[in-house]
Amino acid sequence: MADVGASAVTGKLEITTRLQPAYYVRTGTVRGDLAALLHAPYTRWHLSYVVAGAALAPTFHWVPLVGAVAAFFFGTGIAAHAFDEWHNHPLRTRLTDRTLALVGAGGVAGSIAIAALGALMISPWILAWAVAGVLLMMGYTLEWHRWLHTDLAFAFGWGAFPVLVGYWAQAQQLALAALLMAGAATLVSLAQRALSTPARYIRRRAPSTSIVFEDVRDGAWDAEHLLTTWETPLKLLSAAMVAFAAGLLAARL
């Protein structure tokens, strides 16, 4: 929704917006709040990196892939997003801090449990990967240090790291292919941040501010229209990365 005031003389349009905090979020109900915590388009996107890494490995088995995807789903899809909402409530859900903390702790517990099972079935080194992943997730989400909460830290933790884990879970070693794919995931994740940061700013801060556009006599750009310049590429990239990972997996099989 938007409150609009315009001037025919200056061609200026002033818009005060009331927007959801993300294009895929419909908060206000318990069901909507819980669904919002998943950040579904981004969770699918980042899980696709695990699949891409696994598909590049010289050997392939379903059990390590399913385990790695499940661990990342619990750790990033659930825990990271719950702790992020607990930390500063960017989604403006009505979930209590206690509920968010319990959901976050449950996500971490689920991820560690899967890693412990993997350590028994595959290699004890899986626990080292799990601990590193939890520390990266918590450090970024809770902003433990300023260099842990940067675009580059996000790109490594949510882009490169899943690729490396997906590959290592299959091969128990790393190779040039995994490193190159991790580099690509890092760059795509940086592109994601470049698009999502201004969109988040408009959605989460515009409700208390006004946006002024110059020379709109030939067609007004309201806030929703402006957001499409960032969010349409984000939607396309999210779908593309899932399709890309699925294509790699299909070729591997």
Explain what you see.
By secondary structure, this protein is mostly helical. It has helices at 30-38, 40-56, 62-88, 97-121, 125-141, 151-171, 176-205, 223-252, and strands spanning 2-7, 12-17, 211-213. It has one domain (29-203, 223-252). The chain is 70% helix and 6% strand. A hairpin with a 4-residue loop joins strand 1 (2-7) and strand 2 (12-17). The model is unreliable at 1-17 (pLDDT under 50).
Radius of gyration: 20 Å
Proportion in helices: 55-70%
Number of strands: 3
Average predicted confidence as pLDDT: 85
**Major beta sheet, specifics?**
3 strands, antiparallel
Main attributes of the structure:
disordered N terminus; mainly alpha; 253 residues
What's the topology here?
Layout lengths: L1 E6 L4 E6 L12 H9 L1 H17 L5 H27 L8 H25 L3 H17 L9 H21 L4 H30 L5 E3 L9 H30 L1
Antiparallel strand pairs: 1-2, 2-3
Brief account:
With 253 residues, the protein is mainly alpha-helical. Helix content is 70%, strand content 6%. It has helices at 30-38, 40-56, 62-88, 97-121, 125-141, 151-171, 176-205, 223-252; strands spanning 2-7, 12-17, 211-213.
